[in-house]
Amino acid sequence: MSLESTKPVNINYQKIWQTVLCIPKGRVASYGQIADLAGLPGKARLVGRALGFAPKKLNVPWQRVINSQGKISFPIGSEYFDKQKGLLQSEEIVVLNGRIKLKEFQWQPDLTELLFTLQY
DNA sequence: TAAGTGACGGAGG
DNA sequence: GCCTCCGCCACTT
């Protein structure tokens, strides 16, 4: 029976997790940015979903991914908002009213570095 | 098959 | 800076 290939999109999830793992401590990236780097331009929503499915053992730094406006994508005051804010602040990233200054903290990946890190 | 749903993005007011 | 609307796309019902 067709158990195996149930969901081919999982391959994309792994690309996304790989890319997120490349974000250095103290930096952030937007969902769209991750989608682009993962070879999935325009699929920012997929990134959000992938992070929700990311297994804990992978230790994916999901907190370093925010939306294109530089804001945390959870409602202010929610459990996950507080968790993400706390994690970011522990990396010395400034979070003001759920917002992060992209100008200061956005990750600007080095292409050559990426070529060595990403294996696809 | 169609309609609904989102950890999104961009344009416009 | 904030909000709304619309396009988008994978997934669910």
Automatic annotation (TrEMBL):
Q: Which Pfam families match?
A: DNA_binding_1
Gene Ontology terms: biological process: methylation
Keywords, A to Z, come to: DNA damage, Glycosyltransferase, Methyltransferase, Transferase
| Keyword DNA damage among UniProt keywords | yes
Domain called Methylated-DNA-[protein]-cysteine S-methyltransferase DNA binding: residue spans = 13-92
Q: What class of enzyme is it?
A: transferase
Q: Which InterPro entries match?
A: ATL_DNA_repair, MethylDNA_cys_MeTrfase_DNA-bd, MethylDNA_cys_MeTrfase_DNAb, WH-like_DNA-bd_sf
State which Enzyme Commission number(s) the record gives.
2.1.1.63
Keyword Oxidoreductase listed? The answer is: no
Gene Ontology MF annotations: glycosyltransferase activity; methylated-DNA-[protein]-cysteine S-methyltransferase activity
- From the Swiss-Prot or TrEMBL record, give the protein name: Methylated-DNA--[protein]-cysteine S-methyltransferase
